[in-house]
Amino acid sequence: MAMKVPARHSGEHAWWSEPGPQRCGRCLQGYHVEIGYYCAECDGPVCPACVVTVVERRLVLCPDCAEGAR
């Protein structure tokens, strides 16, 4: 019985790791809206690079609201 050989990695990046059409207003980085966040305080969009996670309160905040919460 022949063993099945797993498919080799094509070397392509996953779609979510590539810059997307959505542009962050803070860092100007491109990202896909599917992996973005919305601030729990102001409901504004936040890119994955700028999001601030408050683990104790189980919240994600934008940098502006996180600064005001300190």
- Report strand %: 15-25%
- End-to-end gap: 64 Å
Mean pLDDT: 83
Largest sheet: 2 strands, antiparallel
Instruction: Specify the number of helices.
Output: 1
Number of strands: 6
Q: Which series of helices and strands comes N to C?
A: EEEEEEH
Question: Biggest sheet: strands side by side, in what order?
Answer: 1-2
- Percent of residues in helices comes to under 10%
Would you identify the regions where 5 or more consecutive residues have pLDDT less than 50?
none
Shape: elongated
Structural class: mainly beta
Backbone CA Rg: 18 Å
Q: What oligomeric assembly is this protein in? A: single chain
Question: What features would you describe in this structure?
Answer:
The protein has 70 residues and is mainly beta. It is built from 1 helix and 6 strands. The strands form 3 sheets. Strands 1-2 form a two-stranded antiparallel sheet. The radius of gyration is 18 Å and the shape is elongated. The N and C termini lie far apart (64 Å). The model has no long low-confidence stretch (mean pLDDT 83).
Produce the secondary structure layout:
Blueprint: E1 22-23, E2 30-31, E3 37-38, E4 45-46, E5 52-54, E6 59-61, H1 63-68
Antiparallel strand pairs: 1-2, 3-4, 5-6
Can you describe this structure in just a few lines?
The protein is mainly beta and 70 residues long. It is built from one helix and six strands; from the N terminus they run ββββββα.
